[in-house]
Amino acid sequence: MLLLVAAFVVLLCLLNQNVGAEKIIVLYNGKKYDLTEFHKNHPGGAEVLKKVNGKDVKEYLEGKKGVKTDHLVQHTHSKHTINEFLPTLEIKH
């Protein structure tokens, strides 16, 4: 019985680690990118990436659309961001 209780406690701890840990997945040029780990370091703020979760971000990266948080975040991202950094976050299946 004690072993069963211990296993249940471990399971609850593991489940609690993922509470609020929603994945942030975006699309760009037909590919999927996982921004979950990066969102805390995003220069425009984590909230920006949460708001584009599940969306095609092409127009955001090109500066054609902005994201409204406590202010409007809208700018063209660098070629480095698009061509070198973003591919490191690609989800490959």
Automatic annotation (TrEMBL):
<feature type="domain" description="Cytochrome b5 heme-binding">
    <location>
        <begin position="15"/>
        <end position="93"/>
    </location>
</feature>
<feature type="signal peptide">
    <location>
        <begin position="1"/>
        <end position="21"/>
    </location>
</feature>
<keyword id="KW-0732">Signal</keyword>
<protein>
    <recommendedName>
        <fullName>Cytochrome b5 heme-binding domain-containing protein</fullName>
    </recommendedName>
</protein>
<dbReference type="InterPro" id="IPR036400">
    <property type="entry name" value="Cyt_B5-like_heme/steroid_sf"/>
</dbReference>
<dbReference type="Pfam" id="PF00173">
    <property type="entry name" value="Cyt-b5"/>
</dbReference>
<dbReference type="InterPro" id="IPR001199">
    <property type="entry name" value="Cyt_B5-like_heme/steroid-bd"/>
</dbReference>
